[in-house]
Amino acid sequence: MTSSPSVLHDRDMYWMRRAIDLSKLCPPSEGAYSVGAVIVAADGTELSYGYSRETDAHVHAEGAALAKLPADDPRLKTATIYSTLEPCSQRRHQVTPCSQLILGADMARVVIAWREPTLFVADCVGVEQLVAGGIVVDELPELAAVARAVNLHLLGNT
Ligand SMILES: [Zn+2]
């Protein structure tokens, strides 16, 4: 049985709203985005969640969520990760970028609400890397403004 596109869209909106709620839990930072992420299994159950700076000052939402699951958890291969921001494609200090973590977990699908602006990284290619790695990437542009709202202090008035 397959679900209709509108049912899938409603489900995506539900989980992205949860990710946006998680992004509001991030310890404030003047130099990094507040992002929330949820990992949802193919059967619709939540497997994990994370948010920026949840467990240490540098952890990203996607990394925090993945770190709570065994790397070889078989459910990851058919899971979707909802992240309020495009997964990063490069990081300083030789930390593995989130797009590489997601590729390494061999996840099925990534859903994002907004793309990284050219504020800290000149050109984020997280989506491109994920697509090249065979992962389905979908955007929910109708939630981009809400996902962005927790980061307005970083973005100025643009
Ligand atoms: Zn990241």
Description:
With 158 residues, the protein is of the alpha/beta class. The protein has one domain: Cytidine Deaminase, domain 2, CATH 3.40.140.10. The chain is 32% helix and 17% strand. It is built from six helices and five strands. The chain has helices at 5-23, 61-67, 98-105, 126-132, 144-149, 152-155; strands spanning 36-40, 46-51, 80-85, 109-114, 136-139. Strands 2-1-3-4-5 form a five-stranded mixed β-sheet, with helices on both faces. Strand 3 (80-85), helix 3 and strand 4 (109-114) form a beta-alpha-beta unit. The model has no long low-confidence stretch (mean pLDDT 91). Zinc ion (ZN) binds at residues 60, 62, 87-88, 97-98.
Largest sheet: 5 strands, mixed
Task: Examine the secondary-structure arrangement and name the CATH architecture.
Answer: 3-Layer(aba) Sandwich
What's the number of extended β-strand segments?
A: 5
SSE pattern: HEEHEHEHEHH
Q: Assign the CATH class.
A: Alpha Beta
| C-alpha-based Rg, rounded | 15 Å
Q: On the 0-100 scale, what is the average pLDDT?
A: 91
Shape: globular
Q: What is the helix fraction of residues, given as a range?
A: 25-40%
Topology readout:
Layout: H1 5-23, E1 36-40, E2 46-51, H2 61-67, E3 80-85, H3 98-105, E4 109-114, H4 126-132, E5 136-139, H5 144-149, H6 152-155
Parallel strand pairs: 3-4, 4-5
Antiparallel strand pairs: 1-2, 1-3
Helix pairs in contact: 3-4
Bound molecules: zinc ion.
Quick synopsis:
The chain is α/β, with parallel strands linked by helices and 158 residues long. The chain has one domain: Cytidine Deaminase, domain 2 (3-Layer(aba) Sandwich).
